Amino acid sequence: MSRNFTGEALEPSVLDELLTLALSAPSAGNTQGRDLVVLEGPDQTADYWDATTDPAWRARSRRFEGLSRAPVIVLPFSDPTAYVERYREPDKVRADGEAVDWVVPYWHVDAAFAVQTLLLAAADRGLGAAFLGNFRGEEALKVTLGVPDRWCWLGAVLLGESARPDPPSSSATRPKRTLADAVHRGHWGRPTRS
Question: What's the pLDDT at 173?
Fold first, then answer.
């Protein structure tokens, strides 16, 4: 993840290519209930920062200056209603006619697939990218951008040319889990038999 950007604008064709790839990510039932609000340039990206941060946070953040120079911020939103409606259609309705019990909210999964595709596509093109979570300001952001109430904001993807130095996250020092730690082949573990 890049946390320091030069501020140089992205070519519109490059941005459109990245967005097209993001929207080609898998979607449950091909519902495609994820939309992207794209903010370009300092006047538009300021709307994001104003809604999600405050002057005190910006003053104490060691990364804000570099982050705020990202020339593009992509805001993924998901629409739960679209999935509920889609899974009532004849090809998706349960055999017993009951509504699907959304144990996993696939509207968020699909939006995350789009974000991951966007991040990987940016990296493939040598661009800087970072995902910032939704921690505060969702309602203010939705009002500022005119996003309908039913849509859920996932977070923000910053895009642009990386600047140096790019301060690493303190999380980067955490050791990576190995295959042996995280992959369970054939079973997770066997219960002991008495």
Answer: 80
Q: pLDDT, tens digit, for every residue of 25-69?
A: 999 999 999 999 999 999 999 999 999 999 999 999 989 999 999
Domain architecture of the chain: domains with CATH: 12-169 (3.40.109.10)
Nearest to 134 by CA among 151, 159, 117: 151
The whole-angstrom separation of Cα 41 and Cα 26 is: 29
Name every residue whose Cβ is closer than 8 Å to that of residue 113 and which is 6 or more positions away in sequence: 25, 26, 27
pLDDT in tens, 76-103: 999 999 999 999 898 888 888 887 888 8
Are 129 and 1 in contact, with CB atoms under 8 Å apart?
Answer: yes
Q: Is 128 helix (H, G, I), strand (E, B) or coil?
A: strand
